[in-house]
Amino acid sequence: TGTVMSSRGGAPRVTAVTCVKNEGPFLLEWVAYNRLLGVTDFLIYSNDCSDGTDRLLDALAPHGVVHLPNPARGRNYQMEALRHAAKQDIVRQADWLWIADVDEFLNIHAGNHTIPALIEACGDPQAISVTFQYFANGGVDRFEDRPVIEQFTRSHNPDLWCAETAIEVKTLVRSDFPVHYLGAHRPFFRKGLDPEGIPRWTDGSGREVPHKFLVAANPRRMRKFPAAGARQHATLNHYALRSLDSYLIKTDRGDVNRKDRVFDDLYWRERNDPAWEDRSIQRHLPALQGVLEDMKRGEIGARHDDCVRLHRARRDALMADPAYARMHADLRALPTLPPGEPELMRELGLAP
After folding, report:
1. pLDDT tens digit string along 130-171?
2. How far apart are CA 241 and CA 150, in angstroms?
3. Which of 17, 160, 203, 314 has a Cα at 20 to 30 A from 127?
4. Which of 156-165, 174-183, 270-279 has the lowest mean pLDDT?
């Protein structure tokens, strides 16, 4: 496995693109982890950071990270950044493009668990859409400065999320995909494309994606399709909640990608289903911890420690606010069965 080659020979050049705001404590793990998978370059846009994220990103230049301020002038920060990214050499010269958030980890089951192995297992298509699996808070209250993939191991049933059997995806895109424009979850090609130009596009099991998803037939199918059977070669582990401490800071920060999105108790409940245990991603932990130890030497380690200190300080400031202290207590007391799931399980004849 892992024999997929770059058009220039050798391993493929893979560029990851993301937007961040106050994600400092989690950046090193995400960059180190993706480098283990075969990501060679990173284009990271930052939005008005107050926790040292921007300073840490600048220090990561020797590790293939290009850091730019988000160019957005309107409210749709991510889409404006993606339009800008499409014109950058680091994207234009890549063999593959991976657009994901810092709380999303590509968990590859195929071969040697790298991006080239996933591409080969799926038959070297022009796009691979990998299905989300939301990882629960798991009763973790306090922020700890250690790998997220080590701390959070519980998720929903992979084929069932709340009342949905169709679950969102993120997409690995090959350089010859006929891109009309890049979306955060998937690329789009022009309507009316010649049938011979329709891209070869698979799910995480190497199966052709559903036709209505392929052609973005309607808004409900633009970003998701049925999850059953879609994860044979890869899953997208989404750690949307992390610790309760970090979730408070996330609600304070707001969405890095869309203005006025609210992280409330419904967002928490929808993603805090601990029904399923999945530790498969921890196959990478020994190598990850070794890479992190090396990266944290010198200036990068000092800037990471600054981010951790400022993250904790912000947590303390928020907990001194009665409204946030009440939110902390309320979230902690919420049931872990997500809205809609009991009704769907009854309909399917499953015990709630």
Report:
1. 999 999 999 999 999 999 999 999 999 999 998 889 999 999
2. 14
3. 160
4. 156-165
> What are the structure tokens assigned to 305, written together?
């420690």
Measured CA to CA, the distance from residue 275 to residue 256 in angstroms comes to 29
Q: Please tell me whether the overall predicted TM-score, pTM, comes out greater than 0.90 for this model.
A: yes
Instruction: Give 12-62 pLDDT, tens digit per residue.
Output: 999 999 999 999 999 999 999 999 999 999 999 999 899 999 999 999 999
CB 66 within 8 A of CB 41: yes
C-alpha–C-alpha distance, residues 158 and 167, integer Å: 9
φ, ψ of residue 319 in degrees (nearest 5):
-70, -20
Residues ≥6 apart with Cβ < 8 Å to 168: 131, 132, 185, 223, 224
201 and 129 in contact (C-beta within 8 Å)? yes
For 77, list phi and psi in degrees, rounded to 5.
Answer: -55, -45
